[in-house]
Specification:
Helix content: over 70%
Mean pLDDT: 85
Shape: globular
Distance between the termini: 34 Å
Number of domains: 1
Largest sheet: none
Order of helices and strands: HHHHH
Oligomer: single chain
Radius of gyration: 15 Å
Strand content: under 5%
Number of helices: 5
Amino acid sequence: MPILEETLDYLGIDYVDDAVRRNAQMALDAAADVIRGAVGDDVYEMLPDSRKLKELTLLHTADLYDERNTTTPKANAVNRKIVDSMEWQLKLELRRKKEELV
């Protein structure tokens, strides 16, 4: 999984303060969670050197970070796709958790 410094470079951020660092880390963590939900919980452990996985993580992170405060139609479409994916993943995770309790 990319580290925060790689993520900041990918995003093209030259000046990093605490708020930028927190927002970028939150986007990176959320992107990794989306990928784990879509691909598998152990994807980062099983494919630690995958360039595709790293690029996919950075692409998701950039979408989450860059479009977080905009209301353009493009941003809304990007965010809607990510939100839809997250919602489905959370529904499946909740179902699995409930089944474990039974």
